[in-house]
Amino acid sequence: MMKSWLSLAAAAVFVLAAGTASAQDTLKIGTEGAYPPYNATDASGKLVGFEIDLANALCERVQMKCEIVQQDWDGMIPALLNKRFDGIMAGMSVTEERLKQIAFSKPYSTTPAWFVGAKDGLLKDAKTLDDIKAALKGKSVGVQRSTIHQNFLEQKIPDIDVRLYDTQDDLNLDLQNGRIDAGLADSLGWKDFLASDAGKGFTHFGPGLTGKDDPIFGLGVGIGLRKEDTALKDKLDKALDAMNADGSLAKLSVKWFGFDTSIK
């Protein structure tokens, strides 16, 4: 997750009660709660996920109190720039497009994007990205709106019908029910669906796509910040460096993803 500055919002967000981050002892943290395992809502309504744990760990290291609230995805970058929030943690990839609008902390996670479809569907023989493009020509492909994945489909695979969804769960439901032919999302965004009974007839096809394949996919997931908030960026960068050095960031990754997604 992997989301676009035009109407941004994965998402987990650092917010100050008032004033600037450096002048406060509380960071208000919002999360979409709909992008597992980065951020999600459990059966009791509690916000859980990698970024929830990471946010709390970072707050502890910078000696600030976390207050966590839920926030819809759309409109997050505008809200950040309007000083409603002081930072965004949302499975948000660091991309050239977003860097025109905001700053980022050092990246703390990176995972590839996957095309997913029915095991016996139109992608069953697709091995390469070119195979996928040929198989999807004229077909419908689902993607969460305002993401780097939407940008990739619209800019690099023009001969398809792009269907936009507010959440990954909505995309999964339409894929399961045959209303779209395939979907594109971060590999971790697919994890719960592919492991579920509903997703047992589906799998991913072709290569995992990263910033090495196309700059649209960015440099990894980081904390979105206003460009002027350099003191907050410095604090968070140092905290992330410390968590990388002592292994606690890798430990959180393994807890939520099953493997280490941290960037050394």
Query: What portion of the residues fall into strands of 2 or more residues?
Result: 15-25%
- CATH homologous superfamily assignment of the largest domain: Periplasmic binding protein-like II
Major sheet size, sense and barrel closure: 5 strands, mixed
Name the overall outline.
globular
Look at the structure and give the CATH class of the largest domain.
Answer: Alpha Beta
Protein name: Solute-binding protein family 3/N-terminal domain-containing protein
Subcellular location: Cell envelope
Organism: Inquilinus limosus
InterPro entries: SBP_3_CS (IPR018313), Solute-binding_3/MltF_N (IPR001638)
Q: Can you give a write-up of this model?
A:
The chain is α+β, with helices and mostly antiparallel strands and 264 residues long. The protein has two domains: 26-110 and 218-257, Periplasmic binding protein-like II (D-Maltodextrin-Binding Protein, domain 2, 3-Layer(aba) Sandwich); 113-209, 3-Layer(aba) Sandwich (D-Maltodextrin-Binding Protein, domain 2), CATH 3.40.190. Helices cover 32% and strands 23% of the residues. The chain contains nine helices and 14 strands. The chain has helices at 50-61, 76-81, 96-99, 129-136, 148-156, 168-176, 187-195, 230-246, 248-257; strands spanning 12-16, 26-31, 34-35, 39-41, 47-48, 65-70, 87-89, 103-104, 113-118, 140-144, 161-165, 182-186, 202-209, 224-225. Strands 11-10-12-9-13 form a five-stranded mixed beta sheet, with helices on both faces. Strand 3 and strand 4 (39-41) form a beta hairpin. Mean pLDDT is 87; it is low at 4-23. Belongs to the bacterial solute-binding protein 3 family.
